[in-house]
Amino acid sequence: MDRAVAAARRAFEDGRWRDMPPAGRKKVLHKIADLIEQYAVELTVLGVRDNGTEFNMALKAEAGSAAGTFRYYAEALDKIYGEVAPTAPDVLGLVHHAPVGVVGAIVPWNFPLMIGAWKLAPALAMGNSVVLKPAETASLSLLKLAGICAEAGLPDGVLNVVTGQGAVAGEALALSYDVDALVFTGSGGVGRRLLEYSARSNLKRVYLELGGKSPNIVFADAPDLAKAAKVSAMGIFRNSGQVCVAGSRLLVERAVHDEFVALMAAEAEKLKVGDPLDLETQIGAVNSIPQLEGNLGFVEKALAEGAEAVTGGGRILQETGGYYMAPTILTGVERGHNVFQNEVFGPVLSVTAFDSDDEAVGLANATDYGLSAGVWTSNLSRAHRMVHGIRAGIVHVNTYGGSDNTVPLGGVKQSGNGHDKSLHAIEKYVDLKTAWIQL
Ligand code: NAD
């Protein structure tokens, strides 16, 4: 890790990348996107064999999304101007956007390529060098991406991918005095440590994209309950629920509670869980045995606290021997229950009934998290009131889980700070530098 950081520092200081004219950097980033598309199947298979995500979704969400992200920031990089300050006429005040230097990026295993690209593309676009540490259980597609970047003409030393244990390689990166900013996606526990490492070393800036316990609120006047159930089922169960924005708390108006739970259970039971490389599979494998055991532990505790499993609840054994879990729906979950408050990061949906708009907002906001939310209603005023009242980085209305590169993704409360995606992400990768020139 020390050698990688030193290489990134040298590459930054000698200007081989940051001083390349914007048109040159743009060309390299576009070429990276082209090559990601060219190697999309290989990248996706590597990733799926590592982390168990269903191939069909991964092809789009990993390689497809990563190529789009590189293109977005390639296009953006030469359209970002500095400022001329409104000073007195004998002074020229200029505000430049300078690259921050060496960026350390630490990413999780659930969508390594997509999340890796969310950090890499804007960091590289703005002229920084990067050292990236993938998760222990999902590094192959990011190692392949490093090769792609070299093939595309990114100068040596500008991107360094170093695998290893979080507590060893990740800690070394986060404690380095030569890293200027740390961008992270992962759990709150590790996020807290990164803030400590920063305080113990060089006060590097730390941007955290953390977990969620996102409410998906269904009102009795939802335009189409059957469609809401179909979309909400994928909103929690795709990638075996290992999605930061998963709609893992269903809050449903009491008048339609039983009907909607039945629709959701039917959707859950229809999903084909199995071999992630099988093109018919809709839900792949859980990432690792500790993750599966954790999921089952959440279910066990929820049942002990009084919830009821209307479908799923256990492991599915398959010939491939992978760690498959049945999409699980738990009803009767209350605000004080463990599964209401804590992120499972598995295919487990908790259901809580409510009677009024105020109660729905109160329940939505009753956890430490604030990443994502969904609202299903045909009442426009209610939809806006909900968007206003729910504390979350994104509120979906009459859908769940959609977004693209044009809008930021980030959390409030203990879901983190800073944003990935959109032009706002660029703020993490630039320093504002003022030139005050006496004329
Ligand atoms: P994790 O926090 O266990 O690991 C994330 C990364 O941190 C890995 O690369 C790991 O090796 C590294 N790490 C672990 N200990 C470290 C240490 N002491 N020092 C430095 N690095 C260390 O998270 P995970 O299990 O890989 O991912 C799941 C979590 O990520 C969930 O909480 C999920 O909600 C969150 N997530 C958030 C978003 C978002 O955009 N907000 C997106 C995806 C996942």
Structure characterization notes:
This protein is of the alpha/beta class and 439 residues long. The protein folds into 2 domains: 2-210 and 416-438, 3-Layer(aba) Sandwich (Aldehyde Dehydrogenase, Chain A, domain 1); 215-397, Aldehyde Dehydrogenase, Chain A, domain 2 (3-Layer(aba) Sandwich). The chain has helices spanning 2-13, 22-38, 40-51, 55-76, 112-125, 140-151, 166-175, 188-200, 225-237, 257-270, 289-304, 338-341, 357-364, 380-389; strands spanning 83-84, 91-99, 102-106, 129-133, 159-161, 181-185, 205-209, 215-218, 249-253, 308-311, 315-316, 324-325, 328-331, 348-354, 372-376, 394-397, 430-438. A hairpin with a 7-residue loop joins strand 11 and strand 12 (324-325). It is globular. It binds nicotinamide-adenine-dinucleotide (NAD). The site of nicotinamide-adenine-dinucleotide has 30 residues, from helix 7 and helix 8. InterPro entries: Ald_DH/histidinol_DH (IPR016161), Ald_DH_C (IPR016163), Ald_DH_CS_CYS (IPR016160), Ald_DH_CS_GLU (IPR029510), Ald_DH_N (IPR016162), Aldehyde_DH_dom (IPR015590). Keywords: Oxidoreductase. Residues 2-434 form the Aldehyde dehydrogenase domain. One of its GO terms (molecular function) is aldehyde dehydrogenase [NAD(P)+] activity. Pfam families: Aldedh.
Reconstruct the topology from this structure.
Layout lengths: L1 H12 L8 H17 L1 H12 L3 H22 L6 E2 L6 E9 L2 E5 L5 H14 L3 E5 L6 H12 L7 E3 L4 H10 L5 E5 L2 H13 L4 E5 L5 E4 L6 H13 L11 E5 L3 H14 L18 H16 L3 E4 L3 E2 L7 E2 L2 E4 L6 H4 L6 E7 L2 H8 L7 E5 L3 H10 L4 E4 L32 E9 L1
Parallel strand pairs: 3-4, 3-6, 4-5, 6-7, 8-9, 8-15, 9-14, 13-14, 15-16
Antiparallel strand pairs: 1-2, 2-17, 10-13, 11-12
Helix pairs in contact: 2-4, 2-6, 3-4, 3-6, 4-5, 9-10
Bound molecules: nicotinamide-adenine-dinucleotide.
